[in-house]
Amino acid sequence: MDRREFAESIGVNDGTLGNYERGDRSPDWSFLATLQREKNVNLNWLFTGQGEMFISPPSAEQLRESKHDLVLMPEYDVRASAGNGLIAIHQMPTSETAFERKFLRDLGGSPDHCFLMWSTGDSMLPSIPDNSLLIVDASQTTVDHGRIYVFNVGNTVLVKRANWRMDGRLELISDNTAGKYPVETFDANRVEDLAVVGRVIFVGHPP
User: Fold this and answer.
1) Which segments constitute the HTH cro/C1-type domain (predicted)?
2) Which CATH code fits 58-204?
3) Domain locations in the chain?
4) ∠ CA(183), CA(189), CA(82), 5° rounding?
5) Distance (Å) of CA 93 to CA 78, 115, 160, 172
6) Cα 192 to the chain's mean position, in Å?
7) Could you give the CA distance from residue 173 to residue 181 in angstroms, rounded to a whole number?
8) Among residues 186, 82, 166, which one has the least CA distance to residue 128?
């Protein structure tokens, strides 16, 4: 197919597809989900280059009967800010996408507790570029030193690296030291302000 035929076959605008091909714009998650739904593209392959390019989407019954080789991972319409924080408004998943359980286990995640969300901002560069797709494991809420987590702090959602101090206080730090982002420090008096959403186990971003 040429570009126009391909765009029509997946229901997107020809100009939009051209922008993606030239690198003028980065594909959003709805476009990636469309590729999977309409063309059976294996998102594991798309993100990592591993596995087969195409998959055969299973029915709900096949999912139950296949010893759960695939898991439907929800995506949430909340952006974890790698910056100053955004208010978490929408808490219901907007879509679900099938991923191989092995892929998530190999990342160190618990497949039944993983979900998708996006980040925004530059405070976690170079680890997490702006507009990165995150896979978060909500079962990992015990904070380990040096790992990256999604935190709820008051009315904001942040993605930060955890740093335990010798005095027992927890710091939420940014990888982008050039940006001079402030360090959030939590002790026993502020612990009720902090909730651990989960650990970031995968970062996908536009090239």
Assistant:
1) 4-46
2) 2.10.109.10
3) 58-204
4) 30
5) 9, 9, 22, 26
6) 25
7) 8
8) 82
